[in-house]
Amino acid sequence: MARFSYQREEIPMQVTAVFQCTECPTWQRVDMKDENEKDCPICGAKMRMENKELPVLRNHI
Ligand SMILES: [Zn+2]
């Protein structure tokens, strides 16, 4: 498992739309804007769109 680190001073954070599974901690970034419902790839439950604070991605600047 990846080790989580919380370096909030160094990594700029941004509120991003994600799909959050209703049954497990799995979440995914929303890739397609017209997508508003998705099934969890791990457990198959419904995922719902939420806003999550994530590190800013720099590769699209
Ligand atoms: Zn799930």
From TrEMBL:
This is Cold-inducible protein YdjO-related protein.
